[in-house]
Amino acid sequence: MNYEGFVQEVQRGVKEIVEKELDDGIVVVRNVLKNNNVRMKAISIVRNEEKATPTVYLQNYYEDFQQGRTVKSICKEIFDIYLRGIDNFKTDVNVQDISDLEKMKEVIYYKVVNYEMNKTLLSKIPHFKFLDLAIVFYILMSKDDEGQATALIYNQHIAGWEITPEELRDIAFQNMWNNYPVVVRRMEDIVSEMILNDILGDEEWVDTYDDEYDDDDFISEDTEYGEYTYGELKGIVREEVESLKIDNLNMYVMSNTMKLNGAVCITYPGAIKDFAVEHNCDVYIIPSSIHELILIPDIKCSIETINDLIKDVNRRQLDPVEVLSDHAYIYRLETGVIE
User: How many CB atoms lie within 10 A of CB 162?
Assistant: First the structure.
């Protein structure tokens, strides 16, 4: 079965469940325009009394189907996602308030996307060019530990608010800089943390003692994992990761405290400059995704080598929706300019 046939079967299967389980509801399949002009098939269940509904993308389910999963189980999961989504969908922003700028001002933010790859979308939304990227704006509808819900701001929104793109930019800049500041971490620390989490797994710590003990008492440096304490294990992992560094290359990851759309930090006033001044050298800025940047101070290899690596990662490993750019940028300490 090809992809189009699969989509039709899923729509039919979800519709059968809706007709059986709900009093009303229309099952809609549509093409959703994502970042970088990526178009994805998505399915939704729309009901009259609901202001918003979960959108479920179908590509990954098709891959599951090709691996032997049944359409019936996929349809059931999509319906379950709908039920959970409706039950949990408590936006911090009332959808009906979007037309009121005063109620929106505190939840307007911005992110950066690739300019060339998003030209179709950019024709419909307020934006500003930054290098070969574009600054675009959105409303943060809700956020929790599992992610965030956002609504892109279109030209008709600012027309209704009766503000200019420049005024929108000023609002978004202040909200972003004030609420989600820059975070810079060594690559070795991040990799070590990932390895430790993988080793330790999802262990549960059960407090069977009196209330006078803090939870932290049960995750201590003395806790044993095999023949090592946690502290020893942490040291071993860090040492091993340090030994794998290529030519003593120092790499840092820059994002924001939200950890989403963190590549926007390239536009933060002084963020790259402060890093370069701290290391007293020029800095290579690698756009590893829309969510983060990799900073390499005083790099020895050529920009061409770095760009080839970025292109390879973008093509082979990164979700096309998350690609930011196919090349690195350089911050020149002497001129204070990003090239």
Answer: 8
